[in-house]
UniProtKB/TrEMBL annotation:
InterPro entries: DUF1232
Major location category of this protein: membrane
Keyword Transmembrane helix attributed: yes
Protein name stated in the entry: DUF1232 domain-containing protein
A GO-annotated cellular component: endomembrane system
Membrane spanning residue stretches: 83-102
Length: 146
């Protein structure tokens, strides 16, 4: 009768995270991104890349992080122009959230510290996946031209 009996306990903070980190939360943050925030992401590329590479739960996003930074650089140089601002803002939110050590679940908590980072990255990736594929196709075309 493990599942039949209802418990009156309050849910843990981790269980409540689904309510705090959802698409609406991330979308709200994306709509508030400014050019200066993108500059902060670019200035912290090394720290963000290191965190993505060294935190085992985030490691699968290390290559995606490189692609996101490459896209931001090409947009900033003006060589890649077919990316919507929403995509740039989504990348900035995701990477700034990963960089921030004081997020909803602090990263130093073993086992669960990166759950919120994963949630924000996953939500953002779901939104921008098509644009990332378009960017990679463009890069391949540019490489073939060279």
């Amino acid at each position: 009768m493990l599942f039949g009996k209802k418990k009156d306990k309050k849910p843990s903070k981790i269980a409540l995270m689904d309510d705090k980190i959802n698409e609406d939360y991330v979308e709200e943050k994306v709509t508030k991104i400014k050019d200066q925030d993108v500059e902060i992401v670019m200035a912290n590329e090394e720290a963000i890349s290191e965190k993505l590479s060294n935190a085992s739960p985030l490691r699968k996003y290390a290559e995606l992080g490189k692609i996101m930074f490459a896209m931001l650089k090409d947009v900033k140089k003006g060589s890649y122009k077919t990316v919507p601002w929403f995509t740039i803002a989504s990348i900035a939110v995701a990477l700034l959230y990963v960089l921030n050590p004081f997020d909803l679940v602090p990263d130093f908590i073993p086992g669960v510290g990166y759950i919120d980072d994963l949630a924000v990255l996953s939500i953002s990736m779901g939104w921008i996946e098509t644009d990332l594929h378009k960017y990679l196709d463009w890069r391949l075309t540019e490489t073939e031209k060279s």
